[in-house]
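User: Here's a chain of 248 residues. Predict its fold as tokens.
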Amino acid sequence: MPPDVKAVFTGSDLSKDPKRLNLFVFMLDHQGRTVHSFHGLPGGARGGDGRSDYTKEIPAGLAKLNLPADQEGRASAVPDLKATGKGVPAGVRLFVRLNDEKDPFRSRMPVVEVVPMKAEDWKPLALPEKAEEVEAAALKSWLVQLYPAGIRTADQSKPFTRISGSLILEPAGADKAGRYALLRGKIQLAKGDDKESAFEGTLQAVLTYGPDAPAVKSVRAVVEGDYLYRLRETQRMPLVAAIESRPE
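Assistant: Prediction complete.
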């Protein structure tokens, strides 16, 4: 285990449980303190010692975290960013999910990430006078989040290091509310050589601007492609991500 994970595990009662199996759930607060823990193998038809009732344990943990839950025990809030007052969005929020008909369970489980951004990070997306190229690497902080749920930690913990692809940013008209631009193109993400997992796909986005300033006001984007999951062989995992600037 990584040292920080091992510290959580060894400090818990679960590590001393003689009925333990090999999967555990720990719910931590924003300061990294464990507030609730339980066996990570669900009960049901295969229930028994060392298994848990998720429908009871998750709401119990949410209550200890003072987070509201819906009728199915899921947290009803998602991560967000606070306005910075600098005239541009504070960052973006991504909803990333598997898009595989053969795996409907994980395809219904989005991973939600927020990416804070500084004012200078938005400059590559300023409204151009005519169509121009934007290197995909300018959006690295967004694109490195493109991982499907449920892959091995050893794979996810190794980040993408090479972002390639050229996007076209072009004006797309105006109205009383402001001005618009489209950003489109192919992207490729790599962690190393062709033995490491990678991603290839396309990005399409609509950006809005004020009537008299080139700074970005909002972004709505969709990324579609394949996560090339490489263990013993390459497994193509269709992935889709919705990206929105926050707050608006």
